[in-house]
Write a structure and sequence with these properties.
The protein starts with 14 loop residues before the first helix and ends in a 16-residue tail after the last strand. The chain has helices at 15-24, 30-44, 62-79, 105-115, 146-160, 182-196, 216-220, 235-250, 264-271, 275-292, 299-305, 309-325, 330-339, 353-358; strands spanning 51-55, 91-94, 164-168, 199-204, 222-226, 370-371, 375-376. By secondary structure, it is α/β, with parallel strands linked by helices. It is globular, with a radius of gyration of 30 Å. The chain has a 5-stranded parallel β-sheet with strand order 2-3-4-1-5, sandwiched between helices. It folds into 2 domains: 30-226, P-loop containing nucleotide triphosphate hydrolases (Rossmann fold, 3-Layer(aba) Sandwich), CATH 3.40.50.300; 231-325, no CATH class. A hairpin with a 3-residue loop joins β6 (370-371) and β7 (375-376). It contains 14 helices and 7 strands.
Length: 392
């Protein structure tokens, strides 16, 4: 029997400690490595981009990606030499969902300043004497407002000079009041990134997709990175997903190692190929097993803790709709070439599935009832019919 992947003494620890160990474990799977490398290169060599969109389905591991990039950037900063006084290598935080239905910029500025370790956030004012009562104390109404908070954030970013600002759950920026343009939200972020020289990385679900091409200026200043799930129609993805399951089962702190990889199809169906969903599912099952004192985790335990089919179906539909945006289509390439004055790509029209489905291919005589030189049975021979009225 191979040695355990976790420390043996962990089996003597409490259930909460064993569960915490598994939750802290991160499987370095191929998709996570690929997207991490792409994001790291984009931050180092942005090519003039101010915004980087990292988009993927829910539960694919986007938060794990953010924490991984933060750790790598901090390590690179420390390894480069003596740390610069006052500089922060990277800033990462989560954009809060608005409680009123509209994105709260004031709350966003506060969270960003908090991540920058900025002191006295509630007292960031342009005019120190403004809004003071007769006793000299600052009134709550005049304490701070959005313009002052934004200016404080700009100054903090210029002084702290982080390599990037990583914003998790960035799809919350799309929560806007009716009548307000979505482009205003992104223009504000783009302006903040340009004025401070600090790249902003927006990490979120496919709800971020409408933000990518709101204007030509925004498109020129932004980059896209697709953090996709593992797909069942890709043999390499299937192997990678099976290895992720095997890696997780090896790090489940149980007396007997389970064999969950044998049920990989069941695991895939209820996780949609998303590693984050899979890990959360295994963590729920592990907590249930530890509470009951069972020696291992079985298929029945997974079934008891799995998502029901209705949420899986809803998530699968949203995921497939989002993935379709990243598929390059021949007709889109042709429209672009025609707008620029080029001709259509040779053979692109013939490659459309619709053309293949409607095109009639000639078949030899005797194949499917075709006879008489390719004419169907009962078809008239092509002749010229007389018209008009014949006299006499």
């Amino acid at each position: 029997m191979p040695p355990r992947a976790f420390p043996d003494e962990l089996l003597q620890r409490s259930s909460s400690e064993r569960l915490a160990y598994f939750r802290s474990y991160t499987a370095a799977h191929p998709q996570l490595k690929t997207v991490s490398e792409a994001l790291r290169r984009s931050i180092q060599e942005s090519g003039g981009a101010s915004l980087i969109f990292v988009v993927g389905p829910t539960g694919v591991g986007k938060t794990t990606l953010r924490l991984r990039i933060e750790q790598e950037l901090r390590q690179r900063f420390l390894a480069a030499g003596e740390p610069e006084p006052g500089r922060i290598p990277v800033v990462g935080f989560e954009a809060a969902a608005p409680d009123s239905g509209n994105f709260n910029w004031k709350d966003y500025y506060r969270r960003a300043l908090g991540a920058l370790e900025e002191p006295l956030i509630d007292y960031k004012l342009d005019r120190p004497m403004a809004g003071r009562s007769g006793t000299g104390e600052q009134t709550a109404a005049a304490r701070v407002c959005s313009p002052e908070l934004r200016q404080a954030l700009e100054q903090a970013l210029r002084h702290r000079r982080p390599a990037a600002v990583l914003i998790d759950e960035a799809q919350h920026f799309t929560k806007i009041a009716s009548g307000r343009r979505l482009s205003d939200q992104l223009d504000c972020l783009k302006s903040l990134a340009s004025l401070t020289g600090c790249i902003h990385v927006l990490i979120g679900t496919y709800e971020l997709l409408p933000c990518r091409n709101l204007s030509a200026q925004l498109s020129r200043r932004s980059l896209d990175i697709h953090f996709r799930r593992y797909r069942i129609d890709n043999p390499d993805d299937v192997v990678a997903f099976q290895r992720v399951i095997f890696s997780f089962q090896r790090h489940l702190p149980l007396a007997q190692e389970p064999e969950l990889w044998r049920d990989w199809e069941f695991c895939y169906t209820h996780s949609l190929g998303c590693v984050g969903i899979l890990k959360d599912w295994f963590a729920r099952a592990l907590a249930d097993v530890l509470e009951r004192g069972a020696p291992t985790l079985t298929r029945a335990d997974l079934e008891r803790c799995a998502w029901s089919l209705d949420p899986c179906l809803t998530t699968a539909r949203d995921t497939l709709d989002g993935e379709s945006v990243f598929i390059e289509k021949a007709e889109t390439a042709n429209r672009l070439r025609q707008l620029l004055g080029f001709g259509a790509i040779a053979g692109a029209e013939a490659a459309k599935p619709a053309d293949k489905a409607t095109r009639m291919e000639p078949r030899p005589s005797g194949a499917g009832g075709l006879k008489h030189g390719g004419r169907r049975v009962g078809s008239r021979r092509p002749v010229r019919d007389e018209i008009g009225i014949r006299s006499g």
